[in-house]
Automatic annotation (TrEMBL):
<dbReference type="GO" id="GO:0000155">
    <property type="term" value="F:phosphorelay sensor kinase activity"/>
</dbReference>
<keyword id="KW-1003">Cell membrane</keyword>
<keyword id="KW-0597">Phosphoprotein</keyword>
<keyword id="KW-0067">ATP-binding</keyword>
<feature type="domain" description="Histidine kinase">
    <location>
        <begin position="43"/>
        <end position="267"/>
    </location>
</feature>
<keyword id="KW-0902">Two-component regulatory system</keyword>
<keyword id="KW-0808">Transferase</keyword>
<dbReference type="GO" id="GO:0005524">
    <property type="term" value="F:ATP binding"/>
</dbReference>
<keyword id="KW-0472">Membrane</keyword>
<dbReference type="GO" id="GO:0004721">
    <property type="term" value="F:phosphoprotein phosphatase activity"/>
</dbReference>
<keyword id="KW-0418">Kinase</keyword>
<dbReference type="GO" id="GO:0005886">
    <property type="term" value="C:plasma membrane"/>
</dbReference>
<keyword id="KW-0547">Nucleotide-binding</keyword>
<dbReference type="GO" id="GO:0016036">
    <property type="term" value="P:cellular response to phosphate starvation"/>
</dbReference>
<protein>
    <recommendedName>
        <fullName>histidine kinase</fullName>
        <ecNumber>2.7.13.3</ecNumber>
    </recommendedName>
</protein>
Length: 267
């Protein structure tokens, strides 16, 4: 941090035989952690309060003005179900995040066939993609490719990335997932496997890229909420990739689309 951002604790105590002892303690990091924690709690509270306020409002309307109106009742119940769904997804993502954080130092022990895992993830998301008019293609996943990993967590990584590509990059009509071995990845300094999720949608402005994996960071909050997003997907992805000692790279060009690349160490 720059000098202006540093926080020091200074204590002055009388020294034996006169004079004073002055001690300086750099508490910048503690202060930053405290600030991050406070921001996180404020964000979570805000995200929960929004659907709760909507739910309470509709309950009141159903109890009063819309009491005897079956058409309005149906419409309000549908909105309430959507808001309750939003809260459920938020709580689920918060739990995933805290679980991944708690396990971040433990190396995953399972063996996973990445080709099979990707083909399963794409099959699960095909109905969502079809509904959005997007074609999903898997390139290079013909042979099984085993790595040491946590299958559920990696499924979550690729599910989040492909779902985002469909949700935000769907105007490009095609999302490609490419699986490839890399002999030596510069980030890993060794052999790895690379999974690239590429969309041809509207792309992301360069100023947003460094902050995209922060919790609750969204390029367009209104759009994310309308799509049912929690703003935690990429934060979860980043933590899972870190736990697997991998790397996440995000490249994007306005008007051309985005590419999210995950490189994981082989053995
Ligand atoms: P959300 O729940 O909002 O989707 P994420 O953490 O998954 O949260 O993503 C954070 C933000 O990054 C999204 O709100 C969106 O603005 C942007 N984003 C993610 N993936 C893409 C993509 N493929 N194309 C364009 N924008 C994206």
């Amino acid at each position: 941090p720059s000098v202006a951002e540093q926080v020091w604790r200074v204590t002055v105590a009388p020294a034996p035989g006169g004079g004073a002892i002055c001690s300086f303690l750099d508490i910048t990091e503690q202060e930053l952690i405290g600030q991050l924690r406070r921001d996180f709690v404020a964000n979570v509270s805000h995200e929960l309060r929004t659907p709760l306020t909507a739910l309470l409002g509709f309950i009141e309307t159903l109890q009063t003005t819309a009491k005897d109106d079956p058409v309005a009742r149906e419409r309000f119940l549908a909105i309430m179900a959507r808001e309750a769904g939003r809260m459920t997804r938020l709580v689920k993502d918060l739990l995933s995040l805290s679980r991944v954080e708690a396990e971040e130092r433990q190396r995953p022990a399972g063996s996973v066939d990445l080709a099979g895992l990707l083909s399963g993830t794409l099959s699960a998301l095909r109905p969502v993609a079809e509904a959005a008019g997007v074609e999903l293609e898997l390139l290079g996943g013909a042979e099984p490719l085993a790595i040491r990993a946590d299958a559920d967590q990696l499924t979550q990584v690729f599910h989040n990335l492909v779902e985002n590509a469909v949700k935000y990059g769907g105007s490009g009509k095609r999302v490609s997932v490419r699986l490839e071995r890399v002999a030596v990845d510069p980030g890993l300094r060794g052999p790895g496997v690379m999974v690239q999720v590429q969309d041809r949608g509207e792309g992301i402005d360069a100023i947003h890229l460094p902050r995209l994996t922060e919790r609750f960071y969204r390029v367009d909050a209104h759009r994310s909420r309308a799509q049912g997003g929690t703003g935690l997907g990429l934060a979860i992805v980043k933590h899972i990739v870190n736990r697997h000692r991998g790397r996440l790279r995000i490249e994007s060009e306005k008007g051309k689309g985005s590419t999210f690349t995950v490189v994981l160490p082989l053995a």
